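User: Before I run my own analysis I want an independent prediction to cross-check against. Here's the chain; please return only the structure tokens and, at the end, one sentence I can use as a sanity check.
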Amino acid sequence: MKLKITQENIQTLLKVAFFLGAITLIIQLFPRQDAFEYKFSVGKPWSYDLVTAPFDFPIYKDKEVYVNEQQNMLQFFTPFYRFNNEVAKKSLTDFENKTTVAENGSQTIPFLYKDYIANQLNYIYSKGVINSEELKTIQQNKQTEIKIVDARNFSHKVLVNDLFTVKSAYEYVLRTRPPWIEENVLKSLNVNNYLFENLVYDKHLSQRGENEILKSISQTSGMVQAGERIVDRGEIVTKKTHGVLNSLNIELKKQKSTAQQYNIMFLGEIILIVSLMTMLFLYLYLFRKVIYERKRDVVFLLLMILLMMLLSVLSLKVPGLNIYIVPFAMLPIIIRTFFDSRTALFIHIITILLVSLIVPNPYEFVLLQMAVGMTVISSLKDLTQRSQLLRSAILVFITYVVVFTGNKLLVEGDISNIDWTFYLFFGINALLLLFVYGLIYIFEKTFGFLSNVTLVELSNVNSPLLLKLSEIAPGTFQHSLQLANLVTEAGKKINANTLLLRVGALYHDIGKLKNPTFFTENQLSGINPLADLQYETAAQHIIEHVQQGVKIAEREGLPDRIIDFIKTHHGKSRTRYFYNSFINKYPDLPVNEKAFMYDGPSPKSKEQALLMMGDAVEASSKSLSEYSDETINLLVDTIINKQIADGLLKDAKITFVDVETVKEVFKEKLKTIYHTRVVYPELNKEPEEA
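Assistant: Structure tokens:
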């Protein structure tokens, strides 16, 4: 099965590519560093926005405090030692062997000395002989006991003061001798040769004991609940606040400590961004087909979202700036200027939801920006004057202040906790909105849009081009003015863009500047220069005014949408006067239809269709010999019905109901214009001067 590649499919794929590109750029704009990028110190004011707990997390103790607690707890730790029974056994055996029999078979040590020394060695080894350095360390740690583990792995506590070193054991033997034991004799027997350390440090048991003690010490000193207020702008960072902020930083790092966790968070970010952008794509595709079908419009809307994202990221990264300095209200203002209110509000919501994923206090941010967006759209239906922008900026400032204050009172419950510097940010925000006027002009020229501001400027009849039209082709100028008034009234009834209609009507016939006397409304002498020409040639001269009008409009820099009115105000209709005259004079000759037909195209929009109907009706109304209700009604119905029958309105987005409404407005307006006036009576006799 072959996949058909149609122009529509290509356009759809192109739009999808635009959105995928925008999504990729938004993802790249999102901060990739640790979520906690604050710099702070105790005793200094907090220079960032309000920070609230994003989730439950413990408060970790300060490192110094925790180390001190460990050291204090380790003072009560009792190290583990084991008896090396082989040491005592070997020492006593050596003593026995050395002192029992000499080489000549005689006893070397008197019995009393031998018995005393043996008893002392047994006593000393039973108490334990420890390394002097280890004993010194134990005493420095202020430990009064140690635990001695026996062969059955049972331990018992022993006072440190009851332990011996080799030196203290020797001194003990000398010091505790009975009166019948002489010190000199005892020293001569070299008792120290049989004294050795028999207590061995059990590193494994001691380490395990230390770990159990350290584990029992809690690293935290409390909990912070999700949503709990931590610190706000301008507040002095206390030692407690410092600890809470450090704890939040630790927890955030833990959440990103593994690649798997980071990937999951990144995936969640992508899902949210793609979901929001998909909503925008579906909105344009389902409800704003006109915008969706124009690549220029789609690119512009996506660029506006990216611009706001970029400004938001910069405001969060640059020290001293604040997210509330960014004039988010300019987004609905600009989009409303070029498109419609619903699209402006929808894109505003999508944008602030995207930005809320990176701001510190998303709830407050969304609340304020939603309120501001609705205020702007409600207060600025059509931007036609600079004073309207000033009024909107003031309303934006008031909205920020009211909603922010209300939210703070609700959350804080105390007016003294409000950071008044935020009101300065709101003021800067409102001032920045005043520069939107210049941005609208830049976007308008860059993307070829048409704003109401430009339409108001173009509708000025004192503009150079319209003044030239009034001088060179006064009849055409008057016809354009009459047509502008006529279609504007009708446009109000069918919800058309009346300002666009008015400007289109004023400029639709500027091509008649080329040869104004070819057209009857400009023939003051009653002489028609086309009368002596062949019908096909005369028709071409009339048709030519459309092409001439396009050339003049392009030369004068008129917007494309106004040029479209020039192209479509006759559509693909015939120059009926010359066509009918040819048929009547030469009924048997074949007719070159193309010679009598305008090039078009036919109207595409409601406004273009309305201008075509109004142009034909207004021009034809001047040819009526009698202006009565019947003749006017018949004229309007005949002309518009003929246009419908010829298929001139089939491409326009206008309903039959709209057409009937337009007919009624035309009839009423023409009756008002051509109503019969009262004839003023003349005096029978001039009054005599006094």
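Sanity check: The chain is about 60% helix and 5% strand.
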